[in-house]
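Hi support team,

I've been running sequence recovery on a batch of backbones for a student project. Most finish fine, but this one hangs at about 90% for roughly twenty minutes before it completes. I'm not sure whether the input is malformed or the queue is just slow. I've pasted the structure tokens below so you can try to reproduce it. Let me know if you need the job ID as well.

Thanks,
M.K.
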């Protein structure tokens, strides 16, 4: 883990040294990553739109044959919430319980408006998982405590991943908990100057296994390690893409070498 943290710190220092980044280069990169965040987060939850189809729905409003209306609406909702998340990351607004509820409301605004920001009252279960969530009657109190912790915590990677796990463990909403937890995590990462992290479909098994391990054994170490590995990979990819997008005169001396 120490070696992993050192790698992340070195790449973060490189990223900080490249700032401020030209607005045109930054916007082009953000558009790419925001579409990917939408595709990956929805795909993890079973949405069958591909990356290209997700981009077509978002950018051109194209209806994809053979896909459900809900899948289209989920793509639009999530992407719009990512844009809102980026705006919020630039402000000093406290990140608290109300932010979590508003984020969830936006994520399901068109696809499931009736549950947006509303705490679940029936029991919640994940098919095939032995994890048992807190009694629904306890959700308001748990979310109040969670929001107070969230508002006081520092936005750094380990805390961002902890915030993700804690929200999933409470599982306060009837649906959309994972999507909300991943965007909340990325909101905290953005506030600390990191790029957002996508949990891709190929990561799904390790991601769910480490989350389940944390819930069943009260041991977050495998989940923290896994998410730090994703952050390290993301930083490398982001730096390489940023170096390619910058004008030649703006590139740092070592930009000819791509980070992996």
């Amino acid at each position: 883990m120490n070696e992993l943290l050192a790698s992340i710190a070195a790449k973060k220092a490189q990223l900080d040294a490249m700032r401020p980044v030209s607005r045109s280069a930054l916007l082009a990169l953000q558009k790419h990553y925001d579409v990917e965040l939408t595709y990956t987060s929805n795909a993890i939850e079973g949405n069958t739109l591909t990356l290209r189809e997700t981009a077509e729905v978002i950018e051109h409003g194209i209806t994809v044959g053979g896909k459900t209306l809900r899948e289209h609406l989920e793509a639009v909702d999530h992407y719009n919430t990512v844009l809102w998340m980026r705006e919020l990351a630039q402000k000093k607004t406290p990140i608290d319980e109300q932010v979590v509820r508003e984020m969830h409301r936006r994520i399901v605004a068109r696809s499931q408006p009736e549950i947006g920001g509303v705490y679940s009252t029936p029991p919640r279960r994940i098919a095939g998982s032995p994890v048992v969530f807190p009694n629904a009657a306890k959700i308001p109190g748990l979310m109040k405590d969670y929001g107070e912790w969230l508002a006081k915590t520092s936005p750094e990677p380990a805390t961002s991943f902890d915030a993700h796990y804690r929200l999933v463990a409470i599982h306060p909403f009837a649906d959309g908990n994972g999507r909300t937890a991943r965007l909340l995590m990325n909101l905290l990462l953005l506030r600390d100057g990191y790029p957002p992290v996508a949990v891709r479909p190929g990561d799904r098994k390790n991601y769910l296994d480490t989350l389940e391990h944390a819930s069943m054994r009260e041991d977050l170490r495998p989940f923290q390690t896994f998410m730090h590995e994703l952050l390290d990979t993301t930083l490398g990819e982001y730096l390489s893409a940023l170096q390619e997008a910058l004008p030649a005169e703006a590139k740092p001396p070592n930009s000819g070498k791509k980070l992996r």
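--
Follow-up from support: It reproduced on our side and the slowdown came from queue contention, not your input. The chain has a mean pLDDT of 91. No action needed from you.
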